[in-house]
Design a protein that fits this description.
65% of the residues lie in helices and 0% in strands. It contains 13 helices and no strands. α1 packs across α2 and α2 crosses α12. The longest helix is centred in the last third of the chain and has 29 residues. The termini are far apart.
Length: 226
Amino acid sequence: MKKALDHLKSADVLMASIIERVGPCRMTYREPTFEALARAIVFQQLSTKAASTIYGRLEQAAGGRISPEAIQQLSVPEMRQAGLSKQKIGYIRDLAEHAISGKLDFAMLPAMEDEDVIVALTDIKGIGVWTAHMFLIFALRRPNVLPVGDLGVRMAIKQLYKKRKLPLAKDIEKLAKNWHPYCSFASWYLWRSLELKDVVAAKKAVKKKRTAAKVKTAKKSRAAKA
């Protein structure tokens, strides 16, 4: 960990300032299991609170532990009752089928290269590159994953590196050239930077300014019509 942070601080002055302000890296890991991937699907495009509630219901319906066998034993109505959308039910059932058939062997994933893991995971319905990146970082604990499609990473880079627009994948890859081989840690600090008080205050100020501008425009429009 120290080696990674020392590298990032020496490679990028702005990253060094973020690390100093955020403090020690406290990345939370999960085991690289079926349950971790099923959880990732449940949490897609939902608030943490809503997703946690749905996941808890699914876990209860599955008998306390989510496994491929438990998912196959659940009916679609039972999964719907937990709060899952029809689409996500299909994704999780497809994941269970891959696990039971052996198409996806979780025991093999730790020994596979990052790109091979991405190929294996994205073969499953509902699992895209973003979910594969999150699994690599937080389950397989890979140190050099750069989630270029993550909105949080893009927003943090836009704010901290004074970009006019949200950066594209190619822009992020260019910026992160000196972060290698510790891009996962850099990404974690970018996410945490969005929680810093001054960054949050700046975001609120921008939002307030935009709202005021919209109100002003609306008043002018009504005055012109009068």
